[in-house]
Amino acid sequence: MGDYRPRRGGGGGGFNNRKRRNRDDDDNYDGGGRYQRRRYEEPPAIKLRKQVIGIAELPHRRVEEDIMNSAKTIADNYFDTDLTNGFLDIAVSLSLEQPLKIPFVAAIVLQTNTQKPEFTEEILKKFGEELQKKINEGHWRDAKLLLRFLACLQGLFMGDGIFPLLEELFGRAADLQTASSEDTLGLELVKTILLTIAYTMASSATECEAQAASLLDQTSIIASGPPHILENLVDPYPSSELGAPPSLESVLSLLQKHMQVEAKNGWMLPCLPRPWKGSRPAGEEDLLASAQKHPFPSINLPETLSTGHKQLFPEVYFSVYADQDIDTVPPASDPSALLIRDALSDAINVMHINRFVAGKVLIDMDQYFAPDTFVKRATAFDKIREVAGDKSAWKPEDVIVDATFSQLLQLPLPEHKAVFYHSVLTESCKVAPAAVAPSLGRAIRYLYRNVDRMDLELSRRFLDWFSHHLSNFGFTWKWSEWVNDVELPDISPKKAFILDALDKEIRLSFAQRIKGVLPEPYQALVPPEKEKDTPDFVYQDPSTPFADQAMELVKKIRQKASDDDIAGILSDIEQEASKAGLANPKVTSTDVYMTSILFVGSKSLSHVLAIIERSRERLSAIANQDAECRKQIVGSVLDFWKFQIGTGVVLVDKLLNYGIITPMSVVEWALIDRIERGTVLTKDWCYEVIMKTTSKVVSRVRQVVAKVRDPRLSDEERSTLQAALDKELNDMKDLFAAIEDAVGSIASASEDGMIESSDALRAEEEQILREWGAKWLRVFRRRSAVEQNWVKEEMAKPLPALPAEPEPTTKSTEVKMDDAPASKANGNSEEQRGASRGGDMDEDGIE
Amino acid sequence: MSTVERLDKPSAYYAAKKRRRQSDRDERDRDSQSKQEEDPLKDAATIYVGNLSFYTTEEQIHELFSKCGEVKRIVMGLDRFTKTPCGFCFVEYYTHEDALDCLKYVGGTKLDERLVRTDLDPGFLEGRQFGRGKSGGQVRDEHREEYDPGRGGYGRAVNERSDQYD
C-alpha cells in the first residue's frame, strides 16, 4: 500500500491523465536510443518493505506464504542493515498506521525468530523504546497498538511475558479510579488490558490461561462496577426520566463480560486471525515452540501517568443495525463485537490523512480477521440467510458502515471533524457501490426511525451527514418511503428532520434541483420563496411603514454615503416611530437600517460583508448603546433571510466575529424573544446558530488557556492573563446558564400553565415541545460539562517545556506542542475537540 | 506517516511551478549558491478551488467548505473582462490546520455536482482573482474540446475556430 496514489478528482480529469501517462512512457526512454527498459532489480530492502507493507492485502495470496518469505528474506539478509533497520521502522509504523496488520507483521517476527533470534532482540528493543515513549507521553492508543504487537509475540517471551506489565498497568488504573470518581484514564487502561489479553490468548503462546484468569478477576473490579458518572453524558438514547440507567451498556462492562465468556470457552476468539499457524505439517509448527525465548522489554511506568492530549470518556457500543431480524453485525452480546469494533475504529481514525486508503482498508477488512468471520463480500441482505446457513451472517459492508457511524456519532465528540467520516463513507460507497449503498440505506432507515429518541446532537450529525452525502450522489433517495411523515406536525422530530434535510440539501444545491427529485406530497415543503435568488425587500412596498426612509437608506448605502447622511435618516425614522407610539424607536430604526443593508448586499456574501465592513462603526455604535438593538440586528438578519436561513446563520456568525453583536444577544433573541413556546427549538437553524455561538466562546476560552500556559510568561504576565481567563470563564458560564434556563423552562413547562390545556391535540403538542426542551438541555449541559472538564484537566497539567532554541533545519517538536493548543476551534463546533485534535499521529510527526 | 501517502500536501501544480522557478533561477545563478527557500505553503490557510461550475454560488461554497473549519473569506474567480464567475475561487480559513483538513476531506468530493479540485495556496493577492486565459476566463477553458455545460460549453478558442466555418 506504500505508494498508493490518491485519485485527484475533477480538474479536466481525462485530458490531464492522458498527458501524464504519456510523460511516464517518455521517462522510460533510455536516452532516446534504446527502446527496451533495462531490467531494474530492486534491492532486497525495498522489496521487503513493499512485501511487508502490503501484507495480507491481496485476497488470493496465501498470507502464510508471504510471512514465511519475508521471514526468510530477513534471515538471509541479516547483514544488510538497510534491510533490517527498514523492517524495524516498518513494523512500528504499520502497527501505528495500519493496526489491522499487527498480527501478520508479528507473525513475520515469530518466524524470523526461529532463524535469527538475534534480530528478535533488536525488534524487542525497538518496540520497548517506542512503547516507553508512548506511555511517557500519554499516547494511549499508540501504546495499546504497540502492546498488541507484543501480545502477538507472547509465544517467544520468557516467563510470563506481557502479563507482569499488564498487572502493573492494572494497579495504576485501580489507583486512578480510587482517587477520583471522574477518572477516565483508568477505564481506558483497563480497556487496553482486556483487549491485550484477547490478542495474547490468540497468539502462539500456550498455558497463559491462569494468568489471564487472574487478571480478569482483577479487572472486573473496575469494569463490572456501577456505571461511571460520565456515562450519562455519552448515552445516545437518553431517557427523559431523571436517574434512569443509560440505554446502552458501556464498552468496558461489555468487554469484561466478553472476555469472561471467552475464558470459559477456552479462548476460542473466533474472529482473531492466527497467521502464525500456517498449514505446515505438524513437525514444522514446533519450530515456533522450540525457538529461542526472549525477555519481555522492560518498561517503567512513570509515577504520574499523563492523560495525553485526548479527553477520555466512557464509550458505548452503538450500532445502526441493532434492530434487524438477522444479525448482520455482531450484536452487543457477542464476544467478537468489541474486538472487531475496536480494530476498525482505530483503522479509520489513524487513517485520517488519506481517506482513500481508509476506504480501501475498510472494504478489505475481512482479510485481516479470521476466515469465515464474515460472509462473502457483496452478499445481498435478503440472500444472507441462504448463503450463511449456520455460519456467521455478519455482512462486512454493514460492519464497516456500522463502525464508521459509531465514530461519527460518538459522544461527546468524534475524534476527528465530522466531515472526515462523511468522506470515508463516500469513499466506501465509491469503491464498492453495489455492496455498500444498500448497507447505507438500511443505516439511514434505522437512524431516521430512531430520530425521536436519539440525543439531539446525534440527530443533528445524522442530518448534516445525510444532506452532505446525498449531495455527492445526485441527491437520490427514496423519499417515498417516508411520505406518511409529511402529514406530521412540523414540530414532530421526524417531520422536522425532513424539513431540515431539504433545506440543507438546497443549501448545497438550489431549490429547483431538489424539488425535481421529490415526490408530489413533498413539493409543498419547499415553498416558492425558496426558489427566489434574493429575498423580497418588504420596504419596496410603499405602504409599508418607513418605506420612504428605507428606500433613501438603500440609495445612500449604494452610494457609500457618509455616516452623517445615514444618521440623519435614522433619526428621522426614530422620530416617526416615537410619534406612532412604538415601544423602542431605536429598535425600529435599527431594523430598517439593517434590513436595508441586507437588501443592498443580497447578491452574495461578499457584497453584504463589504457593506457591513464599511458600516462597521455605525453598526457597532448602534449595538453598543442598547441591548435591544443588538438583538434586533440578529433578528433583522434571520428574518430577512428566513427562506434561505443558511445565509442568515452565516451572517450572524460574521457579525459575532466583527464584534457588532454579542453571544448573549444571539442567545436572548433566539431562545427568549423568539422562543414561541419552544417551537424555535425544533428548527435546525436555531440549533446551528446557538451551537456556533457557544463554539466561538469555547474557542476563545481555549485560546486564553493556551496563552496562560505559555511557559515563557513572566509571573506578572501570567497573572494578568489569568484574570482575563477568569473573566472569559465567567462569561462562558453565564452564556451556558442563560441557554439552560431558557430551554429548561420549556422542558419543565407545566401543563397547567398552558391555556386550553384540555385540548388533547394541544396537550400532545406541549409534550413534544417539552421533549425538545429536554433534549436541548441535555446537549448544552453536556457541552458545558465537557468544556469545564477540559479546562480543569488542562490547567492541572504541568506547563509545557520551554521551546528549544530554534534551529534552521530541524523542527522542534516541543515548539509544536506549544502551538497545538492555540489552534482555533472553529465554528463547526461539534466536530472538533479543539486543542486536542489530531492527537497521536500528527504529534509524532514520523515522516 | 511513512507507509501511506498523505493527502494534505500541495498538488503537482504547485510543485511543478516551483520546479520551473527553481530551474529558471538555477540557470541564472549558476555561480552563486541558490538559497534554501522557506516553503511559502507551510502555514498556508488559503485553498485554491478549481473545476467549479460558473453558476456555483459563494453560499454553496461556504456551506461545503465550512465543514472543514471556519471560513474567513471567499474570493470568487472572475472572467477578467466580464467580471462574472469563471469556475474557480479561493477559500481562506483562519488556520493552516483547517486548510489541510480541506485537502483531506473535501478535495475531490462534489460541490454542485462537480468534483472540486483543491490545492494549498500561498495566499490571495489582488489580481489573482482574474482568469488568465486569452478570452478572459481560465486557461483550461480556452482549448477544452469536451462540452461542459457548467463551464460555458466548448472551449472559447474552440468556439472561435468553429465559428470561422460558419
Describe this structure in words.
By secondary structure, chain A is an all-alpha fold. In chain A, 60% of the residues lie in helices and 0% in strands. Chain A has helices spanning 13-27, 44-53, 63-76, 81-97, 102-115, 117-137, 140-152, 163-179, 185-201, 209-223, 251-264, 282-290, 336-350, 355-363, 384-388, 396-408, 418-431, 433-449, 456-472, 493-508, 511-516, 520-523, 547-558, 563-579, 585-600, 605-614, 616-625, 627-640, 645-658, 663-673, 684-708, 715-747, 760-796, 813-819, 839-844. In chain A, helix 6 packs antiparallel against helix 7 (140-152), helix 9 (185-201) packs antiparallel against helix 10 (209-223) and helix 30 (663-673) runs parallel beside helix 32. Helices cover 27% and strands 19% of the residues of chain B. Chain B has helices at 12-28, 58-65, 96-105, 156-164, and strands spanning 46-50, 71-78, 85-93, 110-111, 114-115, 117-121. In chain B, the strands form two sheets. In chain B, strands 2-3-1-6 form a four-stranded antiparallel sheet, with helices on one face. Chain B is globular and about 55 Å long. The interface between A and B is large, with 64 and 50 residues. Chain B: It is found in: Nucleus. Chain B: Its main location: nucleus. Chain B: Keywords: mRNA processing, mRNA splicing, Nucleus, RNA-binding.
